[in-house]
Design a protein that fits this description.
elongated; 26 helices; 35 strands; 7-stranded parallel sheet; 913 residues
Length: 913
């Protein structure tokens, strides 16, 4: 019977596993020791019985039975108290409960949560309380209650009192007000409660007042038993923490993090940061600036997640912990001044003055509850004391501690208030599920403390990269082998201000890098070759005329190309087609056309452009709209932020790899938007530039032009995701069926954009890499069959596979972004899939992915494989119709890539539909 009631309540209240387990342990305790339900009992005998049931129970530590349920912050202790009350009433007929709160904030919160029709009502779902909900009696209205009313009908009464108020009343040996005679009651309310036959005591955050005078006074209530809930089952003393002896359920923070009930805490620093290189004031300002960068990025991530998933938006805020009230006032003045991000946070900062005590302090802390409201302007809270229990906000995402404290104190006291999840569960989006602690000067100390065996958590890291004189980066654009072979693409990096560049070799010998050197050397030849390449690009779309790249060599197509090139060159013919200089022979256009197309065909693997499109009558697109930019305040910054998760030790960074400079600010956004599979540039160009223009104007409204460009460059994809999420609310499509369309039989190879270390020459691809951890920072060359002269590898397995391809394939390359335009479904996202390799043999074209064996069965890898196999199937159907080669997809475990293997040895890893 009792087990059935327990299951009924757990289901109705949707209890989480640790809450349900706690409720079950209360059931087991009462089933094992039913004498707890009456006043005629032997407490020591009950203790002995329960010790056999719960090995962690040593002593009740009170004159009556008292059991402690220690659940990590954020798991839901208030809801558990509601479950306890519902169970005790439905299973054992208990009607009277006395709930103790440690302070005014928690007292007010408990009253709210026990009041019907409030957002977090603890009895929501309990049908027995739907008609007659429990009567809530508080420390403010108990002397106005009609005690006799409701007793005959079995009314449930929940008394909620603030222990700190009772503590203040008993100072000096005085009697608390609750014990004084009240004429309206005919007795003191305390005596009335003490005479009840079924009073159960519930103590919230019991570690805060375990030995207080108020609790000693409450002991005279003589309850049937007590139920304590806390996240920290110990009392601090001069000898250190003294653990509770009455714990029957312990669900620590580490388990809550592992089970996904709270945020993942991460400690954040700046890459290569040395506190000794800065004054204390500079360290504080850097931490504050980086905290704001994290805060603004998180704000956009939260807004985008809400729009993509149709859930309520969450407004994050940043907490700054100051040394004292003077320091807090100085910080508030700095953050709101024009010296800090040009005063953009003026009016958005709250200072909590910890010099205030008692009711004034409680009132000020209670004001902080308003920061959860989206329309409330506060974004930064400055607090002197570490946050205390009762401030159960879910939108604290960034903490900047600026007071001296050891690592353990920072870990245990800083993160507790920020762990609650706004949606009650993890979202799978790292930035939405993470709490950041900005601790540049304590980074390693916190990591070491978190990795101690007795640490309450296992922490995560975040690191910011600062520019280093020894590690300057340049952006390198590598054109295709055809462009290099024709002399149309120079391997030159984007120059640095100091004039430093990448030490690039002369073009290597061989097909991929251009044989003996560029075929065309005069400007006239190069100009004509460029026009030929443009015409070939236009012919890609005429699939009937040019179904494959090989068709470019037919006489019919050669005539078409030459006619179009001649027409385009006509305005320049005086310079190009006649011998202006007697030493330079006149240009033979037919030779240039023939040679250019020959090299293009040699340097091309035919990649069809495939799209699955609606068939028949269809209406689709995005309706114009005004962007909501009210929550976007991204800030510029050159330093790279690095974070490390405290539990898993996984690292992440908050700095994108900088790409090539765009001509217009809007281009940063538009070029990122067109990467979404549901956005077609040609159809939506006007809308995309309108939306991008709105965003650029917004950024320029609070940033300088150079700062706005910095934000656009670094955060273009984050901004694009936010715009795309808003676009989806204005998307419309009506179609009855879909069909596969092949718009092009082949596509020009896109240039590759890489970031490389300045002054470091490319390595030969056969050269063994000693430090494989740095392989992503290296460029490789020396190829003969690769369709690009330089390539980058993500792992040494990829480099070794390139060695195999150079031996066994006829040509190969690593695709650039956008080459295939294959998209896969991953949650609510549809990211682009960029295969690791494409390789052609005499009989087949392979799309290849190399992965760590442990990752082969992950959702993302399998989703990519499914999309790639589908694409290969469509491509093979097309190539069969034009006498081309079939496509196959290979998914290789990285530990199978060995230079002794032949390419055909990997066919066993072929994935089919």
């Amino acid at each position: 019977m009792n087990a059935r009631v327990r299951n009924h309540i757990a289901g109705r209240l949707s209890l989480r596993p640790p809450q349900a387990e706690s409720l079950d342990r209360l059931r087991r305790a009462l089933d094992a020791a039913p004498d707890m339900l009456g006043h005629q009992r032997d407490v020591s005998a009950i203790l002995s019985t329960l010790q056999a049931e719960f090995p962690t129970l040593e002593d009740f530590e009170r004159e009556f039975p008292s059991l402690c349920f220690a659940l990590a912050t954020g798991v839901g202790k208030t809801r558990l108290m509601g479950a306890f009350i519902a169970y005790l009433h439905l299973a054992h007929g208990i009607n009277n409960f006395f709930v103790l709160a440690p302070n005014l904030t928690i007292y007010n919160k408990l009253i709210t949560d026990f009041t019907p029709n409030t957002p977090k009502y603890v009895f929501k779902g309990i049908g027995e309380f739907a008609i007659q909900s429990p009567r809530i009696i508080t420390g403010d209205n108990y002397d106005q209650q009609n005690i006799a009313a409701g007793e005959l009908f079995g009314e449930v009464r929940v008394n909620i009192f603030n222990i700190s108020k009772i503590n203040s009343e008993v100072r000096g040996g005085r009697e608390p007000r609750i014990k004084r005679m009240r004429e309206v009651l005919g007795d003191s309310y305390f005596n009335h409660l003490a005479n009840l036959p079924d009073l159960v005591l519930l103590m919230d955050e019991s570690h805060r007042y375990r030995a207080s005078a108020g609790v000693r006074a409450i002991n005279d209530l003589k309850p049937l038993f007590g139920l304590e809930v806390t996240a920290t089952p110990f009392v601090e003393s001069s000898r250190g923490p003294v653990p509770f002896k009455n714990v029957v359920m312990h669900y620590p923070l580490a388990r809550a993090m592992e089970d996904g009930f709270v945020k993942e805490p991460a400690v954040v620093t700046q890459r290569n940061f040395k506190a000794s290189d800065h004054t204390p004031e500079e360290v504080e300002k850097i931490k504050l600036e980086d905290g704001v960068r994290l805060h603004e990025t998180t704000k956009v991530e939260l807004l985008t997640y809400a729009r993509e998933n149709g859930v309520k938006p969450v407004k994050p805020f940043m907490l700054v912990i100051a040394r004292d009230t003077t320091h807090a006032a100085q910080l508030k003045s700095l953050i709101e001044s024009v010296q800090f991000y040009e005063g953009r946070y003026a009016g958005k900062v709250i200072q909590v003055d910890s010099s205030r005590t008692g009711a004034e302090e409680e009132e000020m802390i209670a004001r902080l509850l308003a920061v959860e409201r989206v329309e409330e302007p506060t974004e930064i809270v400055i607090h002197v004391n570490m946050l205390k229990e009762g401030w159960d906000v879910t939108n604290l995402y960034t903490i900047v501690p600026l007071r001296a404290a050891n690592a353990r104190t920072l870990i245990e006291q800083s993160i507790g208030r920020g762990l609650r999840l706004p949606y009650g569960k993890r979202t799978g989006v790292a930035a939405v599920d993470r709490l950041n602690i900005v601790a540049h000067d304590k980074f390693q100390e916190i990591i070491d403390e978190a990795n101690r065996g007795d640490s309450p958590i296992r922490l995560k890291q975040v690191i910011l990269d600062a520019p280093s004189a020894d590690d300057k980066k340049v952006s390198v654009q590598v054109g295709s082998g055809a462009a290099v072979r024709l002399g149309l693409s120079a391997l030159t990096p984007t120059p640095l201000p100091e004039g430093e560049g990448l030490a690039l070799p002369s073009p290597a010998r061989g097909r991929g890098a251009g044989g003996e050197g560029p075929v065309f050397t005069t400007e006239a030849e190069k100009q004509a070759a460029r026009v030929v390449m443009e015409v070939i690009g236009k012919l890609e779309t005429q699939r009937d005329l040019v179904p494959t790249s090989g068709a470019l060599l037919t006489p019919e197509v050669q005539k078409v190309i030459q006619a179009e090139v001649t027409e385009r060159l006509r305005p320049m013919q005086g310079n190009l087609l006649t011998g202006a200089d007697e030493a330079i022979p006149a240009l033979d256009l037919s030779v240039v056309v023939a040679k250019t197309t020959e090299i293009v065909v040699q340097q091309t693997i035919d990649i069809p452009r495939i799209a699955v499109v609606p068939k028949g009558e269809v209406t689709t697109g995005f309706r114009p709209f005004s962007l909501d930019v009210s929550q976007l305040r991204l800030q510029p910054g050159e330093r790279e932020i690095v974070g490390q998760m405290l539990r898993t030790n996984e690292q992440f960074t908050l700095a994108a790899e900088i790409g090539l400079k765009e001509q217009r600010p809007e281009d940063y956004i538009v070029h990122a938007l067109v990467d979404f599979d549901d956005i077609d540039y040609f159809t939506h160009a006007d809308l995309l530039y309108d939306l991008a223009g709105q965003m650029v104007r917004h950024l320029q409204s609070y940033l300088s032009e150079s700062e706005a460009v910095s934000v656009l460059d670094r955060d273009r994809r984050l901004i694009a995701r936010e715009i795309h999420a808003q676009m989806m609310a204005h998307f419309f499509e009506e179609a009855t069926e879909f069909e596969v369309q092949v718009s092009r039989g082949f596509t020009e190879l896109k240039p590759c954009n890489y970031t490389a270390t300045a002054g470091q020459p490319p390595r030969h691809f056969r050269e063994t890499v000693e430090d494989v951890g740095r392989i992503k920072q290296m460029l490789f060359g020396g190829f003969t069959k690769c369709l690009y002269p330089l390539q980058k590898f993500d792992s040494d397995s990829e480099r070794r596979f390139a060695v195999i391809l150079e031996r066994d394939a006829s040509r190969w390359f690593k695709p650039a972004k956008g080459q295939f335009q294959i998209y896969y479904k991953l949650g609510t996202e549809q990211p682009e899939y960029i295969p690791d390799f494409v390789a052609e043999t005499d009989t087949t074209i392979f799309m290849v992915e190399t992965k760590a064996r442990a990752d082969l069965d992950t959702q993302e890898v399998q989703a990519k494989a499914a999309a790639a196999v589908q694409w290969c199937g469509h491509a093979s159907e097309y190539t069969a119709s034009v006498q081309g080669k079939p496509w196959q997809y290979l998914l290789l475990p990285h530990d199978e890539v060995d230079e002794s293997r032949r390419l055909t040895d990997f066919l066993r890893f072929r994935i089919t539909a």
